[in-house]
Amino acid sequence: MEYKPIIEQVFHNISNEKPTGMVADYIPELANISPEKFGIYLFGLDGNNCEAGDSQEKFSIQSIVKVLSLTMAFDIVGEKIWERVDVEPSGTSFNSLVQLEYEKGIPRNPLINAGALVICDILISELEDPENQFLGYVQGLSGTTRINYNPQMAASEKKHAFRNAALVNLMKSFGNIHNDTNRVLDFYFTICSMEMTCEELARAFSFFANRGVNYFSGNRIISSSKSKRISAIMQTCGFYDEAGEFSFRVGLPGKSGVGGGIAAVYPGHYSVAVWSPLLNEKGNSVRGMKALEMLTTLSEASVF
Amino acid sequence: MEYKPIIEQVFHNISNEKPTGMVADYIPELANISPEKFGIYLFGLDGNNCEAGDSQEKFSIQSIVKVLSLTMAFDIVGEKIWERVDVEPSGTSFNSLVQLEYEKGIPRNPLINAGALVICDILISELEDPENQFLGYVQGLSGTTRINYNPQMAASEKKHAFRNAALVNLMKSFGNIHNDTNRVLDFYFTICSMEMTCEELARAFSFFANRGVNYFSGNRIISSSKSKRISAIMQTCGFYDEAGEFSFRVGLPGKSGVGGGIAAVYPGHYSVAVWSPLLNEKGNSVRGMKALEMLTTLSEASVF
Amino acid sequence: MEYKPIIEQVFHNISNEKPTGMVADYIPELANISPEKFGIYLFGLDGNNCEAGDSQEKFSIQSIVKVLSLTMAFDIVGEKIWERVDVEPSGTSFNSLVQLEYEKGIPRNPLINAGALVICDILISELEDPENQFLGYVQGLSGTTRINYNPQMAASEKKHAFRNAALVNLMKSFGNIHNDTNRVLDFYFTICSMEMTCEELARAFSFFANRGVNYFSGNRIISSSKSKRISAIMQTCGFYDEAGEFSFRVGLPGKSGVGGGIAAVYPGHYSVAVWSPLLNEKGNSVRGMKALEMLTTLSEASVF
Amino acid sequence: MEYKPIIEQVFHNISNEKPTGMVADYIPELANISPEKFGIYLFGLDGNNCEAGDSQEKFSIQSIVKVLSLTMAFDIVGEKIWERVDVEPSGTSFNSLVQLEYEKGIPRNPLINAGALVICDILISELEDPENQFLGYVQGLSGTTRINYNPQMAASEKKHAFRNAALVNLMKSFGNIHNDTNRVLDFYFTICSMEMTCEELARAFSFFANRGVNYFSGNRIISSSKSKRISAIMQTCGFYDEAGEFSFRVGLPGKSGVGGGIAAVYPGHYSVAVWSPLLNEKGNSVRGMKALEMLTTLSEASVF
User: Fold this and answer.
1) CB distance D228–C267 less than 8 Å?
2) What is the ipTM of this complex?
3) Which of A290, C127, C153, D206 is the most buried (most CB within 10 A)?
């Protein structure tokens, strides 16, 4: 299928609308991003890629990284990962403590903050040099070494980390955090500070479209079955308490970040990344969701 | 793809395992079903159908019917249906009142009991003869007139309806039920008492696989976009607080019923119905979930 | 102690303030009461009674009756009453379903709606003619036969009873209602429709001040220990999610009703009833709470 | 009234019963206390004191201290203290995070952990040398300088402080903690490590019985009205999710600690302290509650 004209139309239509939403403003590094930014990159398994707007500009991928840390941890520890985190949609906000308390410190899924912190704890236990090994892993996924963390972003997040500190301490009280709580928070904020362009992000998610195989190296990243499972988790849990809405409107597995990025996958066909910093009240990119809805509507192709 | 050998292998393997789980026992009509029953029917859009076991025996489809009543109501009232019911996974049990109270009488989605009761209320308002018109609608979907309600089942459910009565009264107190509460409960239990064989059920769901078009008549049931949306709701909400687990293991949109049936859809390819009355503690068919997981694993084909 | 000048001062000061709050408006019988009404009656065990304002006018005592139905049921069935209702403050609104669901149909205490419905269910099981026997019981407590129900009020409440219907059905689903749900609701609304003057209400509560003995007949109503226990429940649970506030400001066990009445008790000294229909957002009489706070502040006498 | 024979009977009866319950075991300092310990001390305003058992042995007063830190903070900052903490019973466990999240970081009352942490934060802001000034304050209340902290206990608690760290971080995220979270935790654990004998504890609470005036020095500690208010909070909130039960059985305002102590007050008459380390599943001393229930039953005197 020819996605180029569709991407162009999507970009054109949405660029012409007056943008709505709010930039994340709890740290200066996010608050100072221009709200006008808007980029798309679609990476087709058939070799046809297309892009529009600010698709070559770096942005903070934030929570999108949680899918990749989950992939690495799932690959390392296998099925026993599910003893420490569930796979159910939370039905609540991304940083809620309520369910965590009722459910004795086992997070609902690995894509809410609590679950991502458990995944960080696992990687710290399993890796010798977690920060560098994880960075190398993501560079490998996207076939480029130009990806890096933003230490200033990480430091700034750390200063406002009280709610995440509450989560990690609560889980520690239930025995579901094995390392020092500050060590876990540090690693968490470091990986969330990763910066990519739309192209790099679409490339990093392309192995899901390719059912677990790295398109660039030809190496298998994870089994086809595990790729399916992580995609299923994205579909049901990738957008916090708006997961149903995204699934309903877009019909693709995906993950959003508070920096305004969204990565999504059409298994067997393509991966796609969108970036626009203006967020709705649920913390998801307004233009990003619209762009992906328009993409699956115009192409008449989604997983459903 | 040739599904016949796969279906046969699935049936063979699972039949040979000692079955686990419990038959639903809150009414005699369900408690008296033989726990040994086990049937599968796969309806392929390419004309290749295959079946195994008790696939031609009638069973009570129960909550599976909620997908079809949603389809009819969505078709009649259009997008404004979402003012009265949301599309988010609930993260809680199928008959919980908690979220309903916090969220002012708006059910999380149309596939939990509360949401299905709102859909019933809508159909009562919109149809002149709701019971007969809905029955005719489902008969049309599956291309057979041999489908009917079981009035004894409906009457028996009604006698144990206290929790559903609580739900409908709570929503009425918030103004989200427009008809008499007993009328709504009657209609709800009547449609849940519908009986089908695996073949009939697979046929009734085949228009989702066919993106909204009736395979038998060639008529469009709902738009492609609405078909995608209802499938998305099945994917995120079809299995109550086990929706993530089903999505994770099976990777198809589907819906279960307390009678032990499950209907699922692989858009563009097939619909499938499984029936085995033994339920896990979440109320979903143990063998049914296993059979569908094995089907997507052996065929290496799911929506992800 | 001489309470007459204090009551007069309380009445004078509060009458001169501009009243705030809202009259309960969910049924016409309550909405049509004049918001200006304001009465107090203090019944002293030393024989010195005093009153001010509209203290001889009938009003709907509503939830205040729950203390008296509890007393009758506790007397009849004894300690085993606590198998069906707890004695803990709820921390939530008077008609919440949330805790009831988490706690498997056992209401937090007998003074929230759910608990009062269980008490009604018990009285229906234990009495031959519940309505008349309970009315006679309350007439006996206050030493007058001029007390009666208001059938029009009861009928009007019944029409808006959806949330109470939800509560009673939810408890029935857990097995904690033994009689027909409509029978329980009927009895509940009948007793809540009871009308009294401030004098009659203060007299009806005087046996708590007198540690279980009827001041008028000299008969023991309940044991001293049971009187203490019911007073303790009033103290911790009598004002829904404002119980702490009332205890904090007033320092007496008491119970409010949505009709604007409050009955309170100073054990060993007096009972007191206040009536003013203007309610705060928690559903408690604004002037009633102020009057009682001023009474215990000016007299420098509370249970603490 | 002559309490000596009653205290002796209470001690005799309960000593002869086989003790039930569990010693708090989350830190070695508490786990190693002999479960046989049992002491009572009643401090009468009429000068008649009486005691039994291990009433002169030091124990860790733990949460009982929260009443005294509240008193000091209430005295210093006055009514504006209630902008940062409410006075309602929580209806939940002592260290729950659920309500705190729903209620935006404002704890339900100052006697649950979250509320006590806010009080600590206030004292840190208001005092130059919080640890020493608070110790001096308590020494003054009980008229003895033999009271001190146990630094080893404080250090040990700090090591298992994950849930309290979650609470304080969650409140900090809502802006309701003004000092460094570790500083607040340090002060909290220090004051909770205070050790007293039953006699010292009964003396420390005697100003509540004396309506705000220090019995030993004759100085007013707090106004009569504030004394009433703090007593009211003890009555409704002093025993976590068992506050209703304690009020119901004992009928006095009181506060328990996980070290097995309970302090209670009969305003105008006496203060009393009991100590027995065996706790029920709610964390309150089994023998302590029994002793106080027997005391108010035998003396036929409670606040109700």
Assistant:
1) no
2) 0.89
3) D206
Where residue B26 falls among pLDDT bands split at 50, 70, 90?
confident
b/e burial code for range B25-47 (CB count within 10 A of at least 16 → b): eebebbeebeeebbbbbbbbbee
Inter-chain contact B91–A108, Cβ cutoff 8 Å?
yes
Question: Where does a domain end: D172, D192, D212?
Answer: D192
Distance from CA of B13 to the nearest CA of A (A): 20
Which of D150, D175, D192 delimits the end of a domain? D192
Residue A82's pLDDT band, with cuts at 50, 70 and 90, is: very high
pLDDT of B104 strictly over 70: yes
Residue D229: its chain C contacts at CB < 8 A? 248-249, 251, 304
Q: What does the pLDDT read at residue A95?
A: 64
Evaluate whether C193 touches B192 at the Cβ level (below 8 Å). no
Over residues C124-157, the pLDDT tens digits come to 999 999 999 999 999 999 999 999 999 999 999 9
What residue type is assigned to position A149 of the chain? Y
The answer on pLDDT for A90 being more than 90 is no
The verdict on C54 and C72 lying in the same domain is no
**CB contact, 8 Å: C231 with chain D?**
yes
- Interface touch A245/B304, C-beta < 8 Å: no
Chain A residues lying within 8 Å of D173, measured CB to CB: 162-163, 166
* Total structural domains within chain A: 2
CB distance D228–C304 less than 8 Å?
yes
DSSP annotation string for C111-169? TSHHHHHHHHHHHHHH-SSHHHHHHHHHHHHHT-S--B--HHHHHHHHHT-HHHHHHHH
CA within 13 Å, CB half, D173: 24
Comparing alpha-carbon positions, the chain A residue that sits nearest to B254 is A304
A237 touches chain B (CB under 8 A): yes
Instruction: For residue A266, list its beta bridge partners.
Output: A270
Q: In this structure, are residues D33 and D277 in contact, taking their beta carbons and an 8 Å threshold? A: yes
Same domain, A69 and A144: yes
The shortest CB-CB distance from A169 to any of D101, D102, D166 is to D166
Q: Which DSSP helix (H) or strand (E) runs through C261?
A: strand C261-266
pLDDT at C93: 64
Provide the whole-model pTM. Answer: 0.90
Whether the pLDDT of residue C95 is over 70: the answer is no
Contact in structure between B35 and B19 (CB atoms under 8 Å): yes
Percentage of chain C modeled with pLDDT above 70: 98
Q: D92 falls in which pLDDT band (50, 70, 90)? A: low
Inter-chain residue contact B181 with C162, CB threshold 8 Å: yes
Q: Does D98 sit within 8 Å of A98, measured CB to CB?
A: yes
Nearest residue to A231 via CA among B92, B304, D156: B304
Pairs of CB atoms within 8 A across A/B: 113
Q: Do the Cβ atoms of A285 and A273 come closer than 8 Å?
A: no
Q: What is the mean pLDDT of residues A96-121?
A: 90
Asked if C231 and D251 come within 8 Å (Cβ–Cβ), the reply is yes
Range of the structural domain that residue C208 is part of? 4-62+196-215+222-298
